[in-house]
Q: What sequence folds into this?
């Protein structure tokens, strides 16, 4: 499976995965090569790199990882002025800690994590990761950073205070990380072993939660308010709901098996307790009521593959690769509108709830489309070479 953390276009990733058996996974370097030559691509949902939507930070800056130029474009959220920070080779995942004002970039080829100090705008440290690192999650409460290494089935744990690191063994081919800062539990999705490794952030002890045989689990989202964890399975067309207290699971069907909707990108609005699952091939989003697990289907644009939520105004933004647009869903009514989003929206979408702005990476255009959430007017901001993932701090 080609993880949604390697590049930025989910569509090709999911279709490629469908052609393979559930028990084969490309080595990390092969995936990176295919990405680099343009044969595959990816996103995230929710985020940067943790699947649950991270809180907007204090600085209002946006950090865009440019895969081919091995740097990060820093956008001022007020003026759209930009600066550039060098990082490691081929950055492919990114996350921000709003508490410490540190930004963490996973460099795939370099097998490292670059740490940007948001106050100085420079790289403060470089931390070694494992084989084929490709996903990252942060617990801002404990100042711990978790990097999933798909090539050696481990998670690198970084202490944000001194950048020291340790390693925890997880399942086979970890591809996503979700964090519940309230309970200090970390959830690692293991694509090939079809399970989730639960890490106790205090002790480092692990337990395993199965999510269905050969289910190809992909994206994950955490609702810290209800202590429920949501894992989308692309081959089974369902979402596994994990009870964070008991570890018990419930399965919720999403998408359409006949249409092969391949659900994966997923996001949570913790205020309304609604979960949003993108169904790429059936061109819609499944809305799960977190209280009852009842579902509603909302049509969106062609080939949707990334999603972000603004819980403050209860709007959901779905990036559609097939028609270069963003579908805006009103969370109260499920009515929709559409906004043009560049000519090659090939990476990720992120929201700044405080400023009510939405940011979309255009990987082929080497820029970022900025959408004003109040008016739906757009602005284009230049970025580096092949911008893929981004995060708001």
A:
């Amino acid at each position: 499976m080609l993880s949604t953390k390697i590049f930025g276009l989910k569509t090709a990733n999911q279709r490629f995965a469908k052609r393979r058996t559930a028990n084969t996974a490309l080595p990390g370097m092969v995936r990176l090569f295919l990405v680099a030559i343009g044969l595959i691509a990816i996103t995230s949902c929710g985020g940067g790199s943790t699947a649950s939507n991270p809180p907007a930070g204090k600085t209002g800056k946006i950090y865009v990882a440019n895969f081919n130029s091995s740097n990060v474009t820093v956008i001022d959220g007020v003026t759209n002025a930009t600066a550039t920070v060098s990082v490691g080779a081929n950055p492919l995942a990114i996350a921000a800690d709003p508490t410490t004002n540190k930004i963490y970039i996973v460099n795939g080829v370099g097998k490292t994590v670059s740490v940007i100090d948001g106050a100085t705008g420079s790289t403060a440290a470089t931390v070694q990761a494992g084989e084929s690192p490709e996903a990252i999650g942060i617990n801002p409460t404990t100042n711990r950073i978790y990097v999933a290494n798909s090539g050696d089935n481990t998670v690198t744990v970084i202490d944000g205070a001194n950048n020291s690191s340790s390693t925890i063994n997880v399942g086979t081919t970890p591809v996503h990380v979700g964090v519940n800062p309230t309970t200090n539990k970390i959830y690692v999705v293991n694509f090939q072993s079809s399970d989730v490794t639960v890490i106790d952030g205090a002790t480092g002890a692990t337990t395993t939660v199965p999510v269905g045989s050969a289910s190809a689990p992909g994206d994950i989202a955490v609702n810290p308010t209800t202590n429920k964890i949501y894992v989308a399975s692309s081959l089974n067309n369902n979402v596994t709901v994990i009870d964070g207290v008991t570890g018990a699971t419930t399965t919720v069907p999403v998408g359409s098996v006949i249409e092969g909707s391949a659900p994966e990108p997923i996001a949570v609005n913790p205020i309304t307790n609604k979960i949003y699952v993108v169904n790429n091939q059936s061109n819609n989003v499944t809305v799960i009521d977190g209280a009852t697990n009842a579902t509603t289907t909302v049509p969106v644009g062609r080939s949707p593959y990334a999603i972000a939520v603004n819980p403050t105004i209860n709007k959901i933004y779905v990036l559609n690769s097939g028609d270069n647009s963003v579908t805006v869903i009103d969370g109260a009514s499920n009515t929709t509108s559409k906004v043009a989003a560049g000519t090659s929206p090939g990476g990720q979408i992120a929201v700044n709830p405080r400023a009510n702005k939405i940011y979309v990476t255009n990987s082929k255009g080497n820029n970022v489309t900025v959408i004003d959430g109040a008016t739906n007017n757009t602005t284009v901001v230049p970025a580096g070479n092949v911008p893929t993932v981004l995060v708001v701090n």
